[in-house]
Amino acid sequence: MKVNGKTVLITGSTDGVGRYVAAKLASGGAKVLIHGRDTARAKTLADEIKRDGRGEAVFYQADLSSLAGARRLADLVVAENDRLDIFISNAGIGSRTQGPERRTSADGHELRFAVNYLSGFLLAYLLLPLLKASAPSRIVNVASLGQHPLDFADVMLTKDYSGGRAYAQSKLAQIMFAIDLARELKGSGVTVNALHPATYMNTTMVREGGITPISTVEQGGEAILHLAVGDDLDGKTGLFFNGMHEAQAHPQAYDEAARKRLRALSLELTGLQAA
Length: 275
Prior knowledge:
The chain has helices at 16-27, 39-52, 67-80, 111-133, 163-184, 204-208, 217-229, 256-270; strands at 7-10, 31-36, 56-61, 86-89, 137-142, 190-196, 240-242, 245-247. The chain is of the alpha/beta class. It has one domain (7-274): NAD(P)-binding Rossmann-like Domain (Rossmann fold). The chain has an 8-stranded mixed β-sheet with strand order 3-2-1-4-5-6-7-8, with helices on both faces.
């Protein structure tokens, strides 16, 4: 896919792998909608893109630990852009971000589930009219090989909390959503795929977890770019990739009943059920 003239939203793109992907797409002539919380880091990236002289960068500040923040971001993107060709749902927090203990979002939901999954779920649905109008278009969920099945009796992990489990279930939820949404959008020209970009990239999230990086941001970034703009992905949807290659996710991802329960819960928690 030629990206010159395309508009791309990348959440969590002021740092790490999101930043790399944003810079690469801008260098190909894309209009990149940068998202993050840190204005200074966003300005540094926007200045870099401006110096390159090929693409365009617009910064949207939003806190995705709040569903209201996700709604405001979507409203601004829709109001200020006449097209959206690619949405890369990359924003996330790790198993030890802000400490390993259980925390809740502004809406009272378990924090990792809220930031890594629910905000992306809400954004995708609010951005769908623009994505459909710009078809062929793509949604890419940046997930992980670290996946833990959801216990629907305690999705918010109020008992026996583990940051690792919370992170892993949020990532499996992203994959389940990609498969579900891909089926819903069949024939619309909008494809939806998920991936594990690379293992333990040299990112803030990995270092916060006290883990020694074993992969580069560039490796992970190229895998994300493959799903976002690779010609061989034309029309392919509802898939999970490990790096550059198609792979199998946790078995719960292919359980239609589990996906249906997750969808119903997500619609209820985000308020989309009444919309």
